[in-house]
Design a protein that fits this description.
The chain is α/β, with parallel strands linked by helices and about 280 residues long. It has a single domain, classed as Trna Endonuclease, Chain: A, domain 1. Helices cover about 30% and strands about 25% of the residues. Strands 1, 7, 8, 9, 10 and 11 form a six-stranded mixed beta sheet that branches. A four-stranded mixed beta sheet has the order 6-4-3-12. It holds the Pfam family Tic22.
Length: about 280
């Protein structure tokens, strides 16, 4: 399935108000997932990267730490929010105008990003996923309210909801159309605001459920890890997990006419973006 079709299907989740419920996840009838199937779920998550005019990703230099040995590694960023990608593009254009004037933002799926990482043979190239600032701020607020230290914020936060009575706590589930059938899913949102908007709309029609529902945060990578056991056997209890991309990312893709299925991401070119020159002391 193309990235665009996945986005259309899953972004529709954020507009549903009357089909949510809170159920213990272990009561859901589920089929098994393999590791490959789990990674396919990442096809619905768009990532943004900076490339040259030919579509080859631009690599940045690793920050040099004081009193540390020189590090000639290069880094490739995958941004989960378009705003952060645009900030990086602006930085490239200012620090290296010759490269920046031809640089562009390209949309890939996170599944493709993982393929690039797996296929990379250059040990000097490192990769980093950059979440949106808003998701990090939301995660910090939630964890702080729970008495958890700010340094425990997940690298890539995802948001989900729990609720129910004390003796029947469960995860928020939703009924959506999957290939012509109504199926129950457990949504994990990349943007806390989208989940909150969903709960606000649901509160009007299902106040009993909505008023007992709380938003929680965890790491995307922990969710992925929970979907397959350590011996690579599927975990049937979490087959219903689905990732919902941010509406901001979806709207950016539509606005910039990048709705077609993404092409296979090219291997990183051995091209480093020089860092911005340091300010001279006054």
């Amino acid at each position: 399935m193309s990235l665009f079709k996945s986005l259309v299907k899953l972004t529709a989740v954020t507009s549903v108000a009357g089909a949510i419920a809170v159920s213990p996840i272990f009561t859901l009838k589920a089929e098994a997932l393999t590791e490959v199937q789990v990674l396919e779920r990442l096809g619905s998550i768009p990532v943004f990267t900076i490339t040259d005019e030919k579509g080859a990703p631009l690599l940045g230099s690793m920050p040099q730490q004081p009193n540390a040995k020189p590090d000639d590694s290069q880094i490739l960023f995958f941004f989960l929010g378009p705003d952060e990608a645009k900030m990086m593009l602006n930085q490239v254009q200012k620090s290296n105008p010759d490269v920046g004037k031809k640089a562009q933002i390209i949309v890939r799926s996170m599944n493709e990003a993982y393929q690039v990482i797996r296929d990379n043979k250059d040990k000097k190239v490192v990769f980093q996923f950059i979440p949106s600032k808003s998701s990090v701020d939301s995660a910090r607020t939630i964890l702080t309210s729970q008495g958890i230290a700010a340094d425990r914020i997940p690298n890539v936060p995802v948001f989900f909801a729990t609720g129910g009575q004390a003796n029947s706590q469960g995860l928020l589930t939703m009924s959506i159309d999957q290939n012509g059938k109504r199926e129950q899913i457990v949504p994990f949102f990349l943007d806390q605001t989208d989940l909150q908007n969903l709960l606000d709309r649901a509160r009007k029609e299902q106040p009993d459920i909505a008023k007992t529902t709380k938003i929680q945060v965890t790491s995307l990578f922990q969710v992925l890890d929970s979907m397959v056991t350590k011996d690579n056997k599927p975990n049937p209890d979490v087959e219903r997990f689905q990732f919902v991309p941010s509406r901001t990312a979806f709207e950016y893709i539509l606005k910039n006419n990048q709705a077609a299925a993404p092409q296979a991401a090219p291997a990183p070119a051995p091209r480093t973006i020089p860092p911005a020159p340091a300010n001279k002391p006054k």
